[in-house]
Amino acid sequence: MKRHKPDPRPGPPRNSERSSPRHDTAPVRGKSNLIETAVEPERALLVGIQWPVLTGALTIEYLDELDMLAQTAGACVVGREISKRAKKDPALLIGKGKAEELAAIIAELEANLVIFDEDLAPNQARNLEKIFGQRVLDRSGLILDIFARRARTRESRTQVELAQLRYLLPRLAGAWTHLERQRGGIGLRGPGETQIETDRRIVRTRISVLEDELVHIDKVHQTQRANRDELFRFALAGYTNVGKSTLMNALTSAGVYEENLLFATLDSTTRTLPVSPRRSALLSDTVGFIRKLPPALMASFRSTLAEIREANCILHIVDLASPSYREQMAEITKILGELEAATIPSVLVFNKIDALEDEATLRLTKSEFPDAVFISARKRTGIDSLLERMREEMNRDFVELTVTLRPEDGKLLSELHRVAEILDEQADASTIILRVRISKQVGQKLGLLDKDKRSRRREG
After folding, report:
1. pLDDT in tens, 338-363
2. Which of 144, 156, 320, 434 qualifies as a cystine partner to 266, CB 3.0-4.6 A?
């Protein structure tokens, strides 16, 4: 076990009083936030695991990220530990000897919360809590807590609550002390039913209600996206806190909340973006990703993530000032593959070049990624270059057509004026000849790209 010195940052005075647990009450129907925040910051000990495939430096970077997550959740980090493991212990993850060593450190630091940079099985968490005498939280539980704090809209609150319930359901056995009591009698579901069975039934019912609600929300979003088919769609994707919302505001003046915080944005925001005097596109800001994002969150945020799956082009935003930006890039590429969005055209955008301390990093990255765009969203540096690249991506999706219309084609003429860029228009008594620039998707939808229709494609 590699010992790290306690965090020197000031925390609450050490005393025998412990913060009250966050999971000390059963879920209540209708509440959107199941995790109650302790009045005083909890004193957290962070535990990272160095597996054989990880270097010591990478393990420390992962622990630094866990430290940021813990602070975002409101914890006071009082210590960090790294345990080298060859394989997982099925009962305790880290083995009994290491667990007992950690218990002594917890007592010494007066920590009342232990956070693992791994996902723990329910039995592992329960066994560790018995040895530590304090509450144990894994990485997924910590991220869910942060999402619960950040959720503001009805959609994001519904998504987060559903993810929390899916996470908590297999962990109910150790969540509350009253769960093993037998219930029976008039008006109850059945004599002899344990409280834990009742609570599981309540949670499953609530999950079903939330799933139905998200299906409805998803249908609304599908309708909204269908009505925007005529416009080219860009989606911002990237690791959390890489500056997507700042870039969104720089491009569109959308007024999206931006802060140097993890998961500052949970809801997708879509705005119209003028890319040239006569052409506009749609730009969507989406939730940031992170390493080991809980599967329950990925499933619950499917309607929000549809903005990425249905985009015509993805702007992959990277924080070049981050020491682990390469690992973050690899993680985003992996997640896009899981979202079935890997085949969508993308543009690599390196942000925060103003925060670089070493100019050599910028030169080397430009040499390695010659097709990438380098910007500072905060200082608006490189925004014009990004817009030019976006116009190029749009041009790949557009074609120029000459369309001949008859007087009775007034409806199609009106639609072309709405969804296409009119380059030239000539009319006589019997026909109207238009030269238009239009997206392939919209042109196909209007039947303009079929050979047997009244149009012909020109080289554009």
Report:
1. 888 999 999 999 999 999 988 899 99
2. 156
